[in-house]
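Ticket #4471: structure output looks truncated?

Reporter: J.K.
Steps to reproduce: submitted the chain below (427 residues) through the standard prediction queue, then opened the result file.
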Amino acid sequence: MADQRSADRAGAVAERTVDGPPTFENPWPVAHFSGRIKAYIDRLGTAWVEGEITQWGVSGGNVYGKLKDTTEDVTIGFNIWSSVRAKIPADLKQGDRVLTLVKPNYWLKGGTLTMQVFEMRHVGLGDMLERLERLRRQLASEGLFDAARKKPLPFLPGRIGLITGKDSDAEKDVLRNAQLRWPSVSFRVVHTAVQGDRVPREVVAALAALDDDPEVDVIIVARGGGDFQNLMGFSDESVLRAAAACRTPLVSAIGHEADRPLLDEVADLRASTPTDAAKRVVPDVSEELNKVEQARARLSLRVTAFVRHEIDRIEQVRSRPVLSNTTWIVDTRAEDLTRYVSRGVELMSRVLERAGTTTSELSARLRALSPQSTLDRGYAIVQQGAGSGHIVRRPVDAPQGTELTVTLASGALKARSEGELSSSHNR
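Returned output as attached by the reporter:
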């Protein structure tokens, strides 16, 4: 009977619906109710809250603690995962007043509500962050962060300007690593304050002094990292504008990843640490020598290959018939030359023969038409002998007593006209 009642109750539960509001007749399952709570809480998103750390415990790299309101007796629990813990200040402890970016997190299995921390800062940083963000937007709009304005670093600087704290680890790291890479490297070091109110004034003066030094080819600003507040001097507007106005390439090596200062954005190059700055600015002499040797080896191989290729080409040219046998052109064209010579002689003979025949014909015609030919047949040419040389064609041209010159086939005679003959002679 009891089993039957249990089966009936299970069937009734199975027939319930969770679409409507929960009632006595239609209650929600715990899983559905918890899911609705979690979905509602997840929609809340993140929020910045202010309070005092009243409990701080570390377990497995994660932090579990409590945050209490500063005026009322209200406390919430929070947890900080190890990935977030590496990004927050390392000096946080119980009793500190903090600003925390949290997200409510409802744990379904345990039904507990905790706050997952994404950021945590000491109280007072909020205003600084707001001013810093306004300055960031202003400088970005002016183009001070643009990649186009960043200057390239020299391959091998003659002298390096270094701005850092006196006897600091950052100074030692830069000098030691630079000299290990290139022993003859030269530095001009200017010591300044690296935290506190003196930072902007001293760093600006150091930048101006090094930028005016014609022997300084690159400037490094180095500090060994620190918390956000200690780095604020390197986000000061005067420092940033002085850095942007530098004609000399500038390297920022503050050595802090999270909340890095704005100098990293203005500088021509950002180095993650002072050691990294030395490696980025100074080439490694051994590496450069290896590159030179490799380049020489490649050059030698290319020159050798080029000379070998040209020798092969010369051998190929020398093996061609035009150079191996200088008489091949005459030998291969001898028959053609003989034929052309014979043809030329034949054509020339024909031309000369035809020209001789033409000349003979013209000569015969010339002789037939020549006056000398007429004289040879017994005719004579009669001219007035008085010096006029007029040819006498009619008797009236030579009246009686006229001196005449009679030209014969061979020679000439002097004569005198006796006048016109009688008419019987004329007939």
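Triage note (M.O.): checked the attachment and the full token line is present. The domain at 26-127 is CATH 2.40.50.140 (OB fold (Dihydrolipoamide Acetyltransferase, E2P)).
Status: closed, working as intended.
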